[in-house]
Amino acid sequence: VLCLAVLVGSACGKQILYQPDASETFVAHKELPFTVQYADANAIEAITCVDYVQLGEYKARVPFGCFLRASTPELSSVDGVAGFGIPKMGANGEMLPMPLLWALTDPRNVE
Question: DSSP per residue over 33-62, as a string?
């Protein structure tokens, strides 16, 4: 089960969540899982996903993390923009997606 809770904006105080089912270009790479472990030993498991992202004039097809599960219930209810400031290597040494802002401005991702 792929659970996404990525905040992409707000209108009048209401959160607008990213909806992968509404995107014709969304791809979930289940073969690219990763784990991010925090300093308090809690962790999240995710997979690498790809879709078009646009911030102002910048639009590119970029990778980002799609949440699967967390080690604690508190982490399961967190939302936000995936891919901001994540480390370059996962807890088990796997490669993580490039942080969103870097990927968005990388000329190799612009089509």
Answer: EEEEE-TTS-EEEEEEEEEEEEETTEEEEE
For residue 17, give the H/E element and its range. strand 14-17
pTM of the complete model: 0.65
Looking at residue 110, its amino acid is V
**Residues in Cβ contact with 110 at an 8 Å cutoff, skipping those fewer than 6 apart:** 59, 60
Please list, in sequence order, all residues whose beta carbon lies within 8 angstroms of the beta carbon of residue 96, skipping any fewer than 6 positions away.
34, 36, 48, 65, 86, 87, 88, 89, 90
Sign of CA dihedral 17, 23, 25, 26: positive
Per-residue pLDDT of the chain (111 residues; tens, 9 = 90+): 344 444 444 445 566 667 888 899 999 999 988 888 878 888 888 888 888 888 777 788 888 888 888 888 877 766 554 555 555 667 677 777 777 677 777 778 776
Residue 108, exposed/middle/buried by CB under 10 A (0-12, 13-18, 19+)?
A: exposed
